[in-house]
Amino acid sequence: MEREPSPVSRAAYDAMCAERDQLLMLLRALPDISFVLDEHGVYVNVIGGTNEAMYVSGRNLLGHALHDALPTPLADECLDLVRTAIESGDLQTVEYCLRAADVPVLPEEARTGTRAAEDQWFEGRVLPLPTYDHPNRVALWVAVNITPRKQLEHYWQEVAYTDPLTGLANRQRLFERAHKEVERAHRHRHPLALLEIDFDYFKRLNDAYGHAAGDEALRRITQACAGILRDSDLMARTGGEEFAILLPETDHDGAMDLSRRLLETVREVRLPDFAPDARLTISIGCATLKTEDSFDRLMRRADEALYEAKASGRDRVCTTPRSHKR
């Protein structure tokens, strides 16, 4: 026979129920959307989400499971968090990205259009609801839309990694990406190349036409060069008139072929509006990754090749000895 709860436990239970009811009432009035999810990942209730500019109505989620509504990797993660919150009794938090277009149980009008394809970032806050009236154990998932914050973070990150004059990556971004690419190339035994580039006789251009003309020449040269690169390549400004191009999945022959195309591209750049007589050229040092190379060693050999290109007449590419077979 089931034992009746003691007056003390009954009072505590009633207090928990009152606190739950107050919480749910508060959530209904908030702009953020909340979900009650059971331990199997089924949507039991949808609460709030009154800010239509930030949230799509989630009423269609009711009765569906997380794996019906979300991409599988995200559904797996969310279900783990729900179960952890229920078992531990502790608040769980997570940040995740989701697009309305990727939620198949939403109405068609919510899954189409420009807004539906935009990345939306949320902070999920998950806590158990032990007194919720449901056959299974449940947790409350509060989804706070943090997209504006993420967009601002992305903007400042781009500012921190971008050269303000040319719009290229800066030295810091090059180094961070390069160390990852070197590690990946060694792990998979794939080729990797680096080009070091110097604007020939840049001081002469500045002296003859002024620093503003020099800045504009740098912009036009880098735009022309960037236009023939792949999306996977990274061009960065590393000094005043010095640049580098990181070339993943590129062997010696591919790097030399691109170098020759870069030389031709720059020779065709003209400055008719402020320096009509200027003829622009660059010098290039090319190096490919060897088995024992770090990025520092790769860069040192590309620098040596660049020095050789400048010493032997400029407007040319020189290379270090080919890498060992990978």
Number of domains: 2
Count, helices: 10
Distance between the termini: 75 Å
Q: What is the CATH homology-level superfamily of the largest domain?
A: Reverse transcriptase/Diguanylate cyclase domain
Descriptive notes:
The chain is of the alpha+beta class and 326 residues long. The chain folds into two domains: 7-154, PAS domain (Beta-Lactamase), CATH 3.30.450; 161-319, 2-Layer Sandwich (Alpha-Beta Plaits), CATH 3.30.70.270. It has helices at 7-29, 66-69, 72-88, 108-111, 147-160, 171-188, 202-209, 211-226, 252-267, 295-311; strands at 33-38, 43-48, 92-98, 120-128, 138-145, 192-199, 234-237, 242-248, 282-288, 317-319. The strands form two sheets. Strands 2-1-5-4-3 form a five-stranded antiparallel β-sheet, sandwiched between helices. Helix 7 packs across helix 8 (211-226). The mean pLDDT is 87.
Strands, helices and their partners?
Layout: H1 7-29, E1 33-38, E2 43-48, H2 66-69, H3 72-88, E3 92-98, H4 108-111, E4 120-128, E5 138-145, H5 147-160, H6 171-188, E6 192-199, H7 202-209, H8 211-226, E7 234-237, E8 242-248, H9 252-267, E9 282-288, H10 295-311, E10 317-319
Parallel strand pairs: 9-10
Antiparallel strand pairs: 1-2, 1-5, 3-4, 4-5, 6-8, 6-9, 7-8
Helix pairs in contact: 7-8
Which structural traits does this protein have?
five-stranded mixed sheet; Alpha-Beta Plaits; 20% strand; alpha+beta; 326 residues; five-stranded antiparallel sheet; 2 domains; elongated; Beta-Lactamase
In short:
The protein is an alpha+beta fold and about 325 residues long. It is built from 10 helices and 10 strands. It has 2 domains: about 5-155, Beta-Lactamase, CATH 3.30.450; about 160-320, Alpha-Beta Plaits, CATH 3.30.70.
